[in-house]
Amino acid sequence: MTKLTEEDIKGIIKCYQDGMNYTEIGKKYNVTRTTVTRKLKSSGAYDLDLSTKECEYCHTEFSPSKYGYDVQKYCSNTCRSRAYSGVSKEHLKSCSVCSKTFINERDTMFCSIECKKEYIGNELAKPLPISKNALRLSRARQNGQFDADIDIYRLIERDGEQCYLCGDVVLFNVHFNDPKYPTIEHVIPIAKGGTHSWDNVKVACRDCNTRKSTKNVELFTKEAEYGGTTKKDVG
Questions:
Q1: Which of 65, 91, 108, 121 lies at a C-alpha separation of 20 to 30 Å from 1?
Q2: What is the pLDDT along the chain (235 residues), one digit of tens a residue?
Q3: What is 132-227's CATH number, 3.30.300, 3.10.20, 1.25.40, 1.10.30?
Q4: 86-111 burial, b if ≥16 CB within 10 A, otherwise e?
């Protein structure tokens, strides 16, 4: 080991100030890292940098050891061993709760049990989604009279098997999305204050029910007569 001269010590200080790490300085002057640190401290030039670093494997910020700040590249032994063994970074994933980067070994969304519990708790606290049909029936109840016993079979028994809008026979022996499948049609639309009551429902094929939507019967009939536009539109 070389005995350091005053010029060597000045050189060590200069290398340190230029950003060279302790290992590199030690190699240059043929001394240990401990000797470099001791000389820097005794000269008053030593400035311990304890700011966070970014792990070269998982890119997570971490606080390195004060004894190995200049050489510590990884946040943990796991990242170090994976980096050395060549494990693909494709295994890295961002936690769905805290956004921390973690090694995804089991196709999970979370970096820890705590984050998983927090996610489940948040999901359970969310209100259940309301279906479009349930929302529509809720609105119908608010509109006034509500006959809960209405169904398509009883309606056909009352009115027959013809669509009241186009006059075609409705068909049960087809797919329920078929244009001629029977549906319950509200003459005055629920969205416009109509009630879900026997005096406001008629049999309609799915095609007419869909096209009528929230229109009144008069407007729907005019549009059907003029090929999808009213007389005002074509005139």
A1: 65
A2: 568 888 888 888 888 878 788 788 888 888 888 888 888 878 777 665 567 888 887 778 887 766 566 678 888 887 887 777 765 555 677 888 888 877 766 667 888 888 888 888 877 777 655 566 777 777 888 888 888 888 999 999 999 999 999 999 999 898 988 999 999 999 999 888 888 999 999 999 999 999 998 888 888 888 877 665 443 343 3
A3: 1.10.30
A4: ebeeeebbebebeeebbbbeeeeebb
Give the pair of three-digit tokens for residue 73.
């590249």
Q: Report the amino acid identity of residue 213.
A: S
Locus of tokens 């000797």: 35
